[in-house]
Specification:
Keywords: Coiled coil, Plasmid. The protein has one domain. Helices cover 79% and strands 0% of the residues. Helix 4 runs antiparallel to helix 5, helix 4 packs parallel to helix 6 and helix 5 runs antiparallel to helix 6.
Length: 150
């Protein structure tokens, strides 16, 4: 075979000390090859985690307000519109959570680099979702104030 008679590969078969192995790993970790692997920046990963948590909180809050409204006022002509709004808010948050998770998973699965179009899509989703989170939070605050639920 090619590699059995190749002098270059003799160095591969050499027994290395643990110290030499650790130095080699440190060099690889710092190298361009390793840094070009498909991995989002720490800031982007932090933003993703934060947005996912915010979306989960929105779902939780919408469902809590829905429960409180039903408990306090029941389902009637007066509350129907608000109950539908709360259901829609929870659904929008759920959809965006799913979208972020799917994009995050796709980024994790691509190797060795993240395609520009996928990275652009991720950044656009983060921006759009951040704006939508703020709007959904305001809607929940207004419903809570209008109905004095908490």
């Amino acid at each position: 075979m090619f590699w059995t008679n190749n002098p270059f590969f003799d160095t591969i078969n050499k027994d290395y000390s643990q110290e030499e192995i650790n130095e080699f790993i440190a060099e690889i970790t710092k190298s361009k090859i390793f840094s070009d692997m498909a991995k989002l920046s720490k800031e982007t990963r932090s933003t993703l985690s934060q947005q996912k948590e915010q979306l989960l909180d929105l779902i939780d809050e919408a469902k809590l307000l829905e429960f409180l409204l039903l408990e306090n006022r029941g389902e009637n002509l007066e509350t129907t519109s608000t109950l539908e709004q709360l259901t829609e808010i929870a659904e929008q948050a759920r959809t965006r959570l799913s979208q972020l998770s799917t994009l995050h998973l796709r980024v994790a699965e691509v190797q060795p680099t993240i395609p520009d179009n996928l990275l652009r899509l991720m950044n656009e989703a983060i921006t759009n979702i951040q704006n939508r989170i703020a709007a959904l939070e305001r809607s929940l605050e207004e419903i809570n104030l209008d109905w004095r639920l908490k």
